[in-house]
Amino acid sequence: MKDYYEILGVSKNASEDEIKKAFRKLAHKYHPDKEGGDEKKFKEINEAYQVLSDKRKRAQYDRYGRTFEPAGGYGGQGFGANPFEGFGFDFSGGQFGQDFSNFGFEGFDDILGTFFGGGRRGASRQKGSDIQIVLDITLKEAFFGVKKGISFRTFVVCKKCSGAGYEKSAGTKKCDKCSGSGKMKEQHTSLFGSFVQVLECDECFGTGQAPNKICNECGGAGRVIGQKSISVEIKSGVYNGQLIKISGQGEAGLRGKNDGDLYIKINILPDKEFKLEGDNLIVRKEVKLSEVLKGKSIEIESISGKKIKIEIPPHFDITQPIVIKDEGMQRNTGILGRALRGDLIVHLYLKTPKKMSSKAKHLAEELAKELEKDE
Fold it and tell me: Based on CB atoms within 10 Å of each CB, which residue in 82, 83, 134, 374 is the most buried?
């Protein structure tokens, strides 16, 4: 059995970066288009990287000695270590005479999924992995909504073969491994008896046709590491930490199989003026002593740009916040389709003057005496 770590020349504790660097170095060295290149070695390197660069596949490989998905599109390794070996159960109508197809099982992967919560069905085994990225947006972008362009590195469809994994001009032939059926049968034994598993052929990916010449750009995988750029619309009212799913914009699948999904996690950046607390916005506003004494109105600008005037009432406790209803962040649509909003909470703070003239000091003393009389 192939040792993927040995192929890439890394240890079993190698980090993702170490694996990526090793792959790039070896792929550059053995690329079939280069002088001294080796197509077989290049395919082997690509196969190893397809597994070790994927956390889920790598975990399966470390545990079972293989993955439950064909790696790199070629050279599947067979079922490998069978967790039910030495047991016995005939799922295809053996000693219990039970045909599990009536229960919706489509092979051993589905049985594993039922018993252990793992496994995936036939064609989905070459589906691209899902990707999650974090997108930073400003508070105002979260309030108004915004269209953002994002770019990230992942597996993308090979342009040379359009994801087919082989040179179409060279054509195909009947797959020798499955005799053109696209299916392979494997017999296993378990505690309950023996059973036959029908698998998609890992040589032709279930098509029944094998390529005459694989693509030397992707090594037959139909995908390569590249930069992916998309535009995403962030709607008004998005909240911090929200996950947005974009179907089919994740990792490209093997040999033209379905792409994975992209999950965008929203991160709202801190704002200089407003502090976000749930759906409410907190703002601090400086007021002058003269404004407080005269009962003068104070002007506040909301996040939408609206000018709001606040009247300071008599006997007002300046340490208490002023709540302005429905001037916070957008909420989810309310009853009868009406958009709801949080509140704007204003905290006032008083600043004493740095310097006072002798006249101002005299007037302040007179004012203090007058206020004491009123009290």
Answer: 82
3-class DSSP string for the chain: CCCHHHHHCCCCCCCHHHHHHHHHHHHHHHCCCCCCCCHHHHHHHHHHHHHHCCHHHHHHHHHHCCCCCCCCCCCCCCCCCCCCCCECECCECCCCCCEHHHHCCCCHHHHHHHHHCCCCCHHHHHCCCCEEEEEEECHHHHHHCEEEEEEEEEEEECCCCCCCCECHHHCEEECCCCCCCCEEEEEEEECCEEEEEEEECCCCCCCCEEECCECCCCCCCCEEEEEEEEEEEECCCCCCCCEEEECCCCCCCHHHCCCCCEEEEEEECCCCCEEEECCEEEEEEEECHHHHHHCCCEEEECCCCCEEEECCCCCCCCCCCEEECCCCCEEEECHHHCEEECCEEEEEEECCCCCCCHHHHHHHHHHHHHHHHHC
* Intervals of the chain under pLDDT 70: 1, 33, 64-125, 190-193, 293-295, 332-339, 364, 367-368, 370-375
Q: What contacts 18, CB < 8 A, 6 or more positions away?
A: 10
Strand 209-211 to 131-137 pairing:
unpaired
- What is the number of alpha carbons within 13 Å of residue 9 lying toward its C-beta? 9
CA distance 259 to 256: 8
Residue type, 78: G
Is the CB of residue 221 less than 8 Å from the CB of residue 136? no
Cα 347 from chain centre? 38
Neighbours of 177 (CB within 10 A): 13
pLDDT at 134: 93
pLDDT (0 to 100) of residue 142: 94
How far are the Cα atoms of 108, 179, 259 from residue 104, in angstroms, in the given order?
Answer: 12, 26, 24
* Alpha carbon distance 254, 243 (integer Å): 26
